[in-house]
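thought: fold this chain, then report.
action: predict
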Amino acid sequence: MGEIYCRRSLVRVSWGRTALPVRTTEFPKRPPRFGPAEIEALTAALSKNELWYWQKESIVASTMTKYAEKFGAHRAVATSSGTASLHVAIAAARMPAGSEVITTPITDIGTINAILYQNLIPVFADVDPDTAMPRPEHITAAITDRTRGVVAVHLTGCPMEIEDIASICSRAGLALIEDCAQALGATYRGKSVGLFGQYGCYSLNDQKHITSGEGGFVLTHTDYDYFLAHNYADKFYDRYGRNVRLQALAPNYRMSELDGAMAAAQLPKLDGIIRKRRALGDRLNGELSKIRGIIPQQKPPGAECSYFFYLFRIDPRIISCSRDAFVRGLAREGIPARGAYVREPIYRSHYFLQKSFFPGVWPAEVVAGRSYDYKSVSLPGTEEAVASGIILDLHEGFEDSDIDDYIAAIDLVAKNNR
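observation:
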């Protein structure tokens, strides 16, 4: 006997014919993000007839003051992207070339590239498959006498156990840099992520909660860290007259006045965006936790997520099909899902298996005086997280009815594969 699905009541009714999919319409796109505020801000920037940021009454400088105040930092440095923010912070941490830097194998490649740019050696910590992020004990297990830093990534807008990780780094004398590219608006124990390490790095590209098109910023705690990060973002020119011109190799990661204007106009919208995403995401967490065989992304006590996207996984001890088969089952129910955030752990990519970061030779290995064999890396939690993880879109344009359909479809596919 076939079935037909009654969407709003979350039941399927027998009618003696083939069932309709749970979802028969497209999910909403993000609502309009730009309007009079952005137009006014951009017009004002253009009217100055100069888009270079280092000028009197700089829009970029004013915007960074607002961002530092918003997130509770001492000062903020503007950059051209989230990857630029990470590179600036890692450079400013001044770890010796050839040093090891611990990070996660489930992240955007920009996290890793920022480490490689400084001729540092990425060392991958395992992750808790239920969070897809390292826990403090994973960081501790990866520390060696060559470790000089940790790049902690708050994946999907879910905070790591960052307070404990910061304590580990402090005791071991390690630089801690937070990658908050996906975590605008996320907090841990009432404090914004990005404030627990020496530097907190953010992205403002078009996919993020708020955007300047491309751009980013680095949160700092002291004038020393601010000036150093600022120099690394601007070719190490001596903009502040501190007699430090060209004292280190530094790229050009400057933000233009147009980007600064956009970032300023977008900032007041962040709280509303986060409230909506958090309400929807937390509801989805609660409902999916009731479905046998489904594991929502776990968050540490005291963490408040900002849901850049939604991540859950199937429990292979209960669900009989593969992750990819589960995704195909969701597609048949009208739910566009996809596999885990990375197709494979980064240490299994050709990039690392062949160590093709630089042509011919990897200078970091030469300086370190030792070779690193990523082919031998095997991290069980990471493998499980990647093999069983599923991503759903989630943003402020969704309504409770859209979450209803997610829940109904996941419940149905899970029941059919237990």
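thought: worth noting. The CA atoms of residues 65 and 75 lie 7 Å apart.
final: tokens above.
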